[in-house]
UniProtKB/TrEMBL annotation:
<feature type="transmembrane region" description="Helical">
    <location>
        <begin position="42"/>
        <end position="68"/>
    </location>
</feature>
<feature type="transmembrane region" description="Helical">
    <location>
        <begin position="328"/>
        <end position="351"/>
    </location>
</feature>
<feature type="transmembrane region" description="Helical">
    <location>
        <begin position="100"/>
        <end position="122"/>
    </location>
</feature>
<dbReference type="InterPro" id="IPR003918">
    <property type="entry name" value="NADH_UbQ_OxRdtase"/>
</dbReference>
<dbReference type="InterPro" id="IPR000260">
    <property type="entry name" value="NADH4_N"/>
</dbReference>
<keyword id="KW-1133">Transmembrane helix</keyword>
<keyword id="KW-0830">Ubiquinone</keyword>
<dbReference type="Pfam" id="PF00361">
    <property type="entry name" value="Proton_antipo_M"/>
</dbReference>
<comment type="similarity">
    <text>Belongs to the complex I subunit 4 family.</text>
</comment>
<feature type="domain" description="NADH:quinone oxidoreductase/Mrp antiporter transmembrane">
    <location>
        <begin position="100"/>
        <end position="384"/>
    </location>
</feature>
<dbReference type="GO" id="GO:0042773">
    <property type="term" value="P:ATP synthesis coupled electron transport"/>
</dbReference>
<feature type="transmembrane region" description="Helical">
    <location>
        <begin position="295"/>
        <end position="316"/>
    </location>
</feature>
<dbReference type="GO" id="GO:0015990">
    <property type="term" value="P:electron transport coupled proton transport"/>
</dbReference>
<dbReference type="GO" id="GO:0031966">
    <property type="term" value="C:mitochondrial membrane"/>
</dbReference>
<dbReference type="InterPro" id="IPR001750">
    <property type="entry name" value="ND/Mrp_TM"/>
</dbReference>
<dbReference type="GO" id="GO:0003954">
    <property type="term" value="F:NADH dehydrogenase activity"/>
</dbReference>
<feature type="transmembrane region" description="Helical">
    <location>
        <begin position="75"/>
        <end position="94"/>
    </location>
</feature>
Amino acid sequence: MIFLIPLCFFPGSWWLVCSLLFFISFFLFFSFPYFFCWGSLGYFFGCDLISYGLIFLSLWICVLMVLASESVFRFYYFPGFFLFVIIFLVSMLYCTFSSVSLLSFYIFFESSLIPTLFLILGWGYQPERVQAGIYLLFYTLLASLPLLVGILFVYDYLCSLCLFLLYGACLPSGVLFYVCMIFAFLVSMPMFMVHLWLPSAHVEAPVSGSMILAGVLLKLGGYGLVRVFPLLFKFGFAFSFIWISLSLVGGFFVSLFCLRQTDLKSLIAYSSVAHMGMVIGGLMTFGYWGVCSSYVLMIAHGLCSSGLFCLSNISYERFGSRSLLVNSGLINLMPSMAMWWFLLSACNMAAPPSLNLLGEIGLLSSLVSWSWSLMFVLVLLSFFSAAYTLYLYSYSQHGSVYSGLYTCSLGYVREFLLLFLHWFPLNIIVLSVDVAVFCV
């Protein structure tokens, strides 16, 4: 991917870079690893099935980011630098997911925030994007400093940071070490009560920033938790009830917040917090079924939420507003786009045959088997997740058309292709989801 960087600055190379990224994605897809342990190992990088799925998701979302941000190219809003930031970002994500050392994972994990911050500050919409960028930076960096201390402690005790050598390692565990190792990932996901950076970052970010935030960067936290779990079994079992209770009850409260939102992007951002609450709950059960289902839901949520942000941007480009009061009656103006609103909203509420359904069913069964008392919270969480998705669809598609609109396009081929490339993998991966059962 590094060879694409000089091409970024050639005039008129936008679609060439987009096509080459598509080619790299398909090449990666057809080089799928049929092994269930680490492979392609070097001194610093390697790959297993967990990292492979997230690497492919990162590359796919970055291709769609270029496709969605055609207005940057059309209005010549620094398109060369924009492409450079995206290629740098996907390179950092590739290195993060393929790191076999905890220290290199930490370095690339933090480095992926820099291009995201550039996207928000450089191509954001409102002056408040500076405040949103500071929120993002301070929340994630301050939470990550204890993680660095924990990694150095692991190296001091074991004299190694290789991920596949940490399994079965015996560490003098303590509460402080446990919190240091997981807190950065809980903030990154984000967990309820440390989620305040996410809605502001989404609202101020351009469509590309929202897509990569929801699609991949939230998954860095879940991936990090899976990687450090071998070090945390003792205290993980002792304190898991705290994180499970907090994430599920928090997901329920966030679902109620969604029903009060009038901003399209804010509603979709809060729905990400609710979905990630279920993922945290599944991971903290420390069960095989819970971890596999969390992985499936992370992949599904990455595609679904990214598609919803694309739809909100399509409306924003025509109406100049993200308010549900303005974006109403869209089925009268853009009937073809209403079908995509319906399909992606159905996926968001885990309707069959989407990948979300499989992930949520697995998480429900794993959490209920962990404790029957969670059934009541899960019923409320599932019900209100469907409620705010129906609220999003019905308020945006039905009702009276905004009277201030003079004319608008029904939709371009590029936009329909963009939405199809979100929806199709989301519903076709179900046919080969048995791979996820063997990936953990």
